[in-house]
Specification:
Layout: H1 9-22, E1 23-24, E2 27-28, E3 33-38, E4 43-48, E5 59-61, E6 68-73, H2 82-89, H3 91-102, H4 111-120, H5 129-150, E7 153-159, E8 162-168, E9 177-181, H6 183-187, H7 191-196, E10 214-217, H8 223-229, H9 234-244, E11 246-247
Parallel strand pairs: 3-9, 5-8, 9-10
Antiparallel strand pairs: 1-2, 3-4, 4-6, 7-8, 10-11
Helix pairs in contact: 1-8, 2-5, 3-5, 8-9
Amino acid sequence: IVGNIIMPTPTAVLMGARLLAEGVEGEDGIGDLVVVDIGGATIDVDSIAHGHPSVSGVVVKGLPDPYLKRTVEGDLGIRYNAETILQKMGKKKVTDRIAGIDGAMLGRIDLGSMTKALSCNVERVPENEEDYCIDIALSCVAAEAAMTRHCGTCEQVYFPTGKVTVQHGKDLTNIHTLIGTGGVFAYGREPRRILQSACFDASNPESLRPRNPELFADDRYILFAVGLFAEFFPGPVLKIMKKHLRQV
C-alpha cells in the first residue's frame, strides 16, 4: 500500500542532514552541521559531527557521542508544551526574549493566558503581532535549552599535576553550519534571532554550543523529504536542498 519507503519523519530529517553534510559522488556536501527542528510537541537537534575537542590538551571523559546524534526534547514543543516552557525555563527568560524583540509587547502580552491558549489549541497559527512575538520568544528559549542539552560540556578539574579541562559529550563550538527547520522557520518570523539563541553564550561558557556558525533556514520545509529520498536519488535531492536553503 505504501510502497518502499517507511521512515519516521525525524529519521528522515537526520538522513537528510547526513546527506547534506557528507554529499555523494559528483556532488559535495557542506561539511559538519547541526539542525534544530522546532515542532509543536518536541524540539529535535541533529548533529553530523564527531565533536572532538576544538583545543589541545582537553581530556574527554565518558562514552563518545555518536557521529550521527539526534536528541528529542519532549518538553519543549512550542504548542503542546508552551505552558511547560514557561514553567520549566522560567517567566523571566521568556519575558527577556519578548523585550529583546519589542519592549512595548510586554504590556500587551499575558504570558499565562497566551501559553495556555497555545497548549489547548495546538493548531493555532499567529494572527497578529503579539502572536508572532510569543512564538519567536518561546522558540528562542526552547532552542537554547534543546541545544544546551544536545551539546557537550567542559569543566576545569584540578589534579595533583595541575588544572585540566575535561570534556563530556560533543564539542560543537567550531561547527560551520546551523540549520533551522520546522513550521516556525517555514512560516514564522525572525529565523536568525531564533538560531542565534541556540549558539554559544559567554555567560554559559561550559556549554560547547556553536560559536559562530553560518545560519540557514529550511523555509521551503523540505529537509525531511530530502532524507526520505536520499537512498534513491541522492544527487538530485542534495542539489535541491542546497539550492533552497536560505541563509539568514
